[in-house]
Amino acid sequence: MLRYIVRRILYAIPILIGVNLITFFLFFIVNTPDDMARMQLGVKRVTPEAIERWKAERGYDRPVAWNGAEQGAAKLTNTIFFDHSVRLFAFDFGAAESDGRDIGHEISTRMWPSLAIALPVFVVGLAAYVSFALLLVFFRATTLDTAGVVMCVIAMSISGMFYIIGGQYVVSKLWNLVPISGFGDGLSAWRFLVLPVVVGLAHGLGESGRWYRTIFLEEINRDYVRTARAKGLRESRVLFRHVLRNGLIPILTGVVVAIPSLFIGSLVTESFFGIPGLGSYTIEAINSQDFAVVRSMVFLGSLLYIIGLILTDISYTLADPRIRFD
Amino acid sequence: MLPFKPILLWTDMLVLLLIAAVIAFVVQARQHEHLRAPWRKVARSTGGMIAAPVLLAFLAIGFLDSLHFQRGTPPEKGQAEMRYGPDVLSVLDVLVEHLRVQQERSFSAPFATHAHSRETITRPDGSQVREFPRLRHGGSHLANPETDRAADIGQRLLRALGISTVLGVLASVMVVGTYARRRGLSFDGALAAMREGNVDIPIGPMLVSALLLITTFTMLFALSGVYHVFGTDKVGQDVFYLTLKSIRTALVIGTATTLVMLPFAVTLGMLAGYFRGRIDDAIQYLYTTLSSIPDVLLIAAAVLMMQVYMDTHPEIFDSVTRRADFRLTFLCIILGVTSWTGLCRLLRGETLKLREQEYVLAAQAFGVSHFRILLRHILPNVFHLVIITTVLKFSGLVLAEAVLSYVGVGVDPAMNSFGTMINAARLEMAREPIVWWSLAAAFAFMLLLVLSANLFADAVRDAFDPRMRAVRRGSRAKQAKVPPQPRVAGAA
Questions:
Q1: ipTM score for this prediction
Q2: Fewer CB in 10 Å around end: N or C, chain A?
Q3: Are B137 and B240 in contact (CB under 8 A)?
Q4: A29-59 burial, b if ≥16 CB within 10 A, otherwise e?
């Protein structure tokens, strides 16, 4: 098991390097730092001096990958590639281009609000969707089941932004229950979190509910279920003891991949609700064309996703004793 | 000399390429029974047939909106050549010319005759008042809007209902007649079979959906001539027009993206599965790496870089339309790059299985080249996965467009799309009284498109996925009622 995990982690390294190379290519080769400087400073009335100053301030005036003017190891380290791509591996994200603030510090403070929304949505959502799917399976092939599936299909055809805007309008504007947007310190933040969490839950219901229902339905035609019924077990016991447990294996292992990415938060939700998390950080960076921040977020997002993949593989072995890795 | 100059935008080419591909596929499928069988199954599913008329209507609108041209004015004296206006128009623009031209000054509610906010108006006698001014076009034919409007709308609706009844009866007769001829029934026989629920294709639900669609669109068009049925937006454009124009963007994103990604996914997936070894490792590495970057972030990064390129090279894009079109094309490509990995993985797995099959081994033993084996033996047997993925991806892409446009990395702000509509309307939510119509129209049309796409995709998946045939037990009871098909009788 330990050997498997170590091997899995070693596999992740070349992938991470690949991600790094892709982002580097996108940000520094497709457009040169000169182009970016011109963009940031305004295309029309930009002077060569201003471009040089902009590049020097951010360290973009050095060679791309090989600095022949330096001595020894500095030939490699005193370059754009080393400073802006290799350093990401050490979580040294550098400073934002627009306001010069330390990106690493911003990330470490902003990930908590993101998590405060994503985690409840994830945990409560999992429980709610599984219960909902199980309910549909219990009433399978009845009108209730059909109605539930139809509702799911309609719900998943509605844009996520509709849930947000509708929720804000009904709950905050008409009923005045919670503030429309914003965020508070400490525990007082809960008033701002309720609506985003509820909206997030409603958004996921259609797709996840239907998907889990399919998984349970596949399970319910298996031989062991027939055996359980043949033994004379009650339907509820068959469902909860046999179908639920076996159906949970693909569901749990399927959602594990999302756990590390909970820190990243949702771009749209956070920006609509004014939550100062990583999602709105990314949107602000996109709108102010802060390439350093976007670059860092791409790296961080990929890293968390890869960690999620490793956790998924490990969770297979934990959840299902039939699967063994050597 | 032509009074217009046809314009072929990048996305128009993609649309034409797509149509050519679909036609080629249909021609191919018509000749082979095993290719037709799944589609026949799609035609038997209620959900799919309810969705089909809606999708067809959307596709027709999108197609008309993809035929672009520039209007020309006849040469003046001393000039030899026609001069063409700067606006790139589409056939749809001409068909709904009145919607495009009838602009107001700013917001107005659906069916309004007066503007949404007060303006200072100078009366003939010189005194100034603040009141809601009359709209230039919305309800301008009414002398006394307060009293006449309801009656006028009712009258027009009745007339539309009459027209749509005629159209609906015509459509129904055509559909039932075609069905009767195909099945060798008399017209009355087909009607009787429908009444008894004894038809293999769910004509009833399909007709209901088609009739609802016809009625809705006739009413909308009958009223849109003199009213703004969905109101107007901030700069006074008719929201109904914007909604119609948004359909093409949604369709292009939903289909062209797949067109862009298919060559990569199919080629690489089959190569990886067929040759295994080093090639497999390299391709797996490639798609694992690409798929580990969160989609939205990769798209954001790529679009930001493209923006830099477009801003530093303004000379390439001579008009707003071309600029917006370039951006839409690029968005399709980058969405394709982020979404080919899933299909590639599927195809690799399936090819791995197929290459061990006897017929592939036999072909290899006969010395058939690898290329030929891939093309003639593997590709046709994995093609159902391609079809399923294509239709399943569509609705997700349409929804993603709106989100991306909101984030600021979607289509060009000058391009009409559901995303830009929502984004613009969102900023007006705080107004009192609230401006809700743009949002409502965008969400309603999006829901209609995505819902019908989802229903159709489900039908296609059920018909093509071999695993689904075993799983779906409930539908077997229903199929028992289906009368024996002529082809089955012939085969027996």
A1: 0.87
A2: C
A3: no
A4: eebebbbbbbbbeeeeebeeeebeebbeebe
Q: Taking a C-beta distance cutoff of 8 angstroms, is the pair A97, A291 a contact? A: yes
Model pLDDT for residues B403-458, shown as the tens digit of each residue: 898 888 888 888 889 999 988 887 777 777 788 888 999 999 999 999 999 999 99
φ/ψ of residue A220, rounded to 5: -75, -10
SS3 label, residue B16: helix
Decide: residue B391, CB within 10 A, 0-12 exposed, 13-18 middle, 19+ buried: buried
Nearest-by-Cβ selection for B305 from A15, A27, A264? A27
Q: How far apart are CA B291 and CA B237, in angstroms?
A: 41
Is B395 within the bounds of a domain? Answer: yes
| Closest by Cβ to B308, choosing from A31, A153, A305 | A31
Range of the domain at B344: 239-470
pLDDT band at B127 (very low <50, low <70, confident <90, very high): confident
Query: Is B113 a domain residue?
Result: no
Residues belonging to chain B: 492
Number of domains in chain B: 1
Which is higher by pLDDT, A73 or B150?
B150
Count of A-B CB contacts under 8 Å: 132
CA dist A297 and A264 (Å) reads 8
Kindly state whether A287 is in contact with chain B, defined as any CB-CB distance less than 8 angstroms: yes
What CATH number is associated with residue B247? 1.10.3720.10
Q: Is residue B265 one of the residues assigned to a domain?
A: yes
DSSP H helix total and E strand total for chain B: 20, 5
Rounded to whole angstroms, the Cα distance separating A3 from A326 reads 8
Q: Which two tokens stand for residue B489?
A: 């009788």
- Token code pair at residue B261: 């990604």
For chain A, what's the residue count?
A: 326
Residue in B with minimal Cα distance to A297: B297
- Mean of pLDDT values over B5-19: 88
Q: Confirm if B451 and B394 have CB atoms less than 8 A apart.
A: no
Query: What residue ranges of chain A have pLDDT lower than 50?
Result: none
Does residue A302 contact residue A16 with C-beta atoms inside 8 Å?
yes
Cβ separation of B429 and A169 shorter than 8 Å?
yes
**Tokens of residue A255, six digits:** 């959602």
Rounded to whole angstroms, how far apart are CA atoms A217 and B101? Answer: 54
DSSP sequence for A285-318: HHHTT-HHHHHHHHHHHHHHHHHHHHHHHHHHHH
Contact B346, B319 (CB under 8 A): no
Q: Which residues from chain B sit within 8 angstroms of residue A294, using beta carbons?
A: 297, 300-301, 304
Q: Which of A272, A256, A267 is nearest to A312 (CA)?
A: A256
pLDDT tens track for B136-148: 888 788 878 778 8
Summarize pLDDT for A210-231 with one digit per residue, the tens: 999 999 998 888 899 999 999 9
- With beta carbons less than 8 A apart as the criterion, state whether A227 and A150 touch: no
Residue B367, sorted as left (phi over 0), alpha (psi -120 to 50) or beta, turns out to be: left
Which residues of chain B make contact with A221, given a CB cutoff of 8 A?
A: 471, 473
Q: Mapping DSSP to helix (H, G, I), strand (E, B) and coil, where does residue B86 land?
A: strand
Asked if B344 contacts B287 with a C-beta cutoff of 8 angstroms, the reply is yes
Amino acid in the structure at residue B129:
V
Quickly list DSSP for A206-245: HHHHHHHHHHHHHHHTSHHHHHHHHTT--HHHIIIIIIHH
- Residue B257 within a domain: yes
- Token pair of B211 as six digits: 């009739």
Contacts of A264 in chain B (CB under 8 A): 294
Neighbours of A262 (CB within 10 A): 19
Tokens describing residue A292: 């350093």
With 0-12 / 13-18 / 19 or more C-beta atoms within 10 angstroms meaning exposed / middle / buried, residue B158 is exposed
- Name which of B250, B282, B261, B299 is nearest B404 in CA terms: B299
